[in-house]
TrEMBL record:
Cellular component GO terms held in the UniProt record: cytoplasm
Residue ranges constituting the Phosphatidylinositol-specific phospholipase C X domain according to the UniProt record: 10-154
Coiled-coil residue windows: none
Organism the protein comes from: Loxia leucoptera
Source organism, top-level taxon: Eukaryota
Gene Ontology MF: a single term: phosphatidylinositol-4,5-bisphosphate phospholipase C activity
Pfam families reported for this sequence: PI-PLC-X
Top EC class for this record: hydrolase
Family matches, as SUPFAM superfamilies: PLC-like phosphodiesterases (SSF51695)
Hydrolase keyword on record: yes
Gene: Plch1
E.C. code: 3.1.4.11
Single Gene Ontology BP annotation: phosphatidylinositol-mediated signaling
Protein name: Phosphoinositide phospholipase C
Recorded catalytic activity of this chain's protein: a 1,2-diacyl-sn-glycero-3-phospho-(1D-myo-inositol-4,5-bisphosphate) + H2O = 1D-myo-inositol 1,4,5-trisphosphate + a 1,2-diacyl-sn-glycerol + H(+)
């Protein structure tokens, strides 16, 4: 057998849209999507398991603090800030390729501003604030270009 065939080579220089991305749905839930607990620790688990796109369902919470939960159900609520801090802590422990936050936004403008503030404060330089035109997917940056970056998809 050819020894070259024993090596795995992953070309991570292509535009991001050329790749399948391991994604999580309702990442914050520890069980079923109607009654279970929302837990920030679930983000730690999936990120360390190789997931690169996590879902964050954001809703207006009390005292001007946005919360994460599965809307219109009996799932418990957790603070958006706690979710962002957990993602920041675990995003790149086992994998340096970018993490996409898939934010489902149900918040008022006031609490959206709070979310933006937390994203900037907690992720700092990891937060990718470059503007990407979706007109030509060949112009998207590669996973290699985005190592260590947090991308936001709303």
């Amino acid at each position: 057998s050819n020894p070259l065939h024993r090596q795995v080579h992953q070309d991570m220089q292509q535009p991001l849209c050329h790749y399948f991305i391991a994604s999580s749905h309702n990442t914050y839930l520890s069980g079923d999507q109607l009654l279970s607990q929302s837990r920030a620790e679930m983000y730690a688990c999936v990120l360390q398991a190789g997931c690169r796109c996590v879902e964050v369902d954001c809703w207006d919470g009390p005292d001007g603090e946005p919360v994460v939960h599965h809307g219109y159900t009996l799932t418990s609520k957790i603070l958006f800030r706690d979710v962002a801090e957990t993602i920041n802590k675990y995003a790149f422990i086992k994998n340096e390729f970018p993490v996409i936050l898939s934010i489902e936004n149900h918040c008022s403008i006031q609490q959206q501003k709070k979310i933006a503030q937390y994203l900037k404060e907690i992720f700092g330089d990891k937060l990718d604030l470059s503007s990407v035109s979706t007109g030509d997917p060949r112009q998207l940056p590669s996973p290699q270009d985005l190592k260590g970056k947090i991308l936001v998809k709303v």
